[in-house]
Write a structure and sequence with these properties.
Layout (H helix, E strand, L loop, with lengths): L1 H12 L3 E5 L5 E5 L5 E22 L7 H5 L9 E25 L7 E3 L5 E4 L37 E2 L10 E2 L2 H27 L6 H23 L1 E13 L9 E7 L3 E4 L6 E9 L1 H10 L13 E14 L2 E18 L9 E5 L6 E6 L1
Antiparallel strand pairs: 1-2, 3-4, 3-9, 5-6, 6-15, 7-8, 10-11, 10-12, 12-13, 13-14, 15-16
Amino acid sequence: MKYLAIVVGLLLVIPTFGQRKKKDDELVIAPTFVEGIAYALPRTGVKVHVKAIREVFEPGPYAAYAEQLLGIRDAKTSASTTWSISEVSIETFSEPDPEQVYKAMGDGAFMVSLAPNGCIAGINADETVSGIIPTQSNKTYQKPDLEDAFSFDYFTDTPAYTPGDSTNNFRPTRISIEQKAAEAAKRILNCRMNQYDLAALRIDGEYPDGKAYEVSLKELKRTEKNYIQLFVGRTTHKKESYSFDFVPDSKPAKGQVIFRISDEKGVVAASDLSGKPVMIEFEQVQDLTKKYTTEAVSENPNAGSKGVYYRMPGVATVKIIHDMNVIGSARTTFAQFGIVAPVPEELLQGDCAVEYHPETGAIKSVKLK
C-alpha cells in the first residue's frame, strides 16, 4: 500500500507524459499537449502591373486656316485627352488563407514550424524556412500635367500690334488672326525653300563645312515643325505605371473588375465608375483538381485527428481583358484552386521530417530522421 500511495502521488504532481520511440528503440518521455498550435494554409494572390500612355492633343490657334494656306485638310480644332494601356505584366504573391486556419494537436503541435506570416512551413523539420515572397508596394500616380507645360496660349510668333502711321494718327493697329496665320504660313514656305536651297548647294559642292550644313538643316526643320504645329496642333505623350492586387476565391466568379481606365482620369480603381472596366478571369485546370480529389481520400479513420494539413495547389490561366480583348495572360499555380488533405498520421510520429512550400502549402519533401 505504501508503494501504491507513492505512485498515485507522482501521477497527481507530474503532468501527463507520453512515450515516443526513437529509431534505436529507446523510449523517450515527451509531454502530451492538451492545447494546440494555430496555423494557416496559404492562398495565392495576383499583382497586375500596368503601364499606360496619356496622349494629350492641343489644337493649333490657326487650325481653321490650315487647308486655305497650306493645303492641310481636316486639321483638328478641339482639345482631347486619351489613355491607352501599353503593357501588362502579372506576378503572384502568397498570404494566409482565412478560410484555411487549423490547430495542430497532440504530437503535431510541438513538431510544427511556421513561416513569418503564420503559414505552416514544416513538421519536425530542421531546415530554415525559405521561399517567402517579400512585400512590394503598389505603384500608383496621380494624373500628371503636360510634361513640359507648353501651351499655345503663351506662344507669340508675330507682334500683336503694328505701329501706326499718318493715316491713323500714329495709333498702333492690332494684327488680326488671319494676318498672323498668313505670316506663319509664309515662314513655313520659306523654311522649305531654304532647305531646298541648302540641299542644292550641298549637291553642287558649294557648302564647304559638312557640320555647318547638318546644323543649319536641322534648325530649319525644327523651325518648320514648330510653325506647322500652329496649324495642325501638338500631341504629347506621358507614360505612367500602376499596380493592382487581386485575390481570387477558391471558386472565382467570371469577369471580375480589377481596375478601370478613363480618358479623363486615366487608370483608376475598380470602384471608380468613371472609367471602362478591365476584367480579370481565371481558367482552372479542372482535370488536375478532380484527380487530386480522388487521390486525397484517406482510408485511415484517424486521418486529420492531429489537425495537420497540406495543400495540393491547382493550376489556372490568368487573363486580363479590356474591350473584349485579352491584353495580358499568364499560366501559374494557385493554392486555393487545389485540394486540402490531412498529413498521414504515420508521418507525425517523430520519425519523419516534412518540409512545405510556404507559398502554396504543398509538401516539398518527406525525409526519415
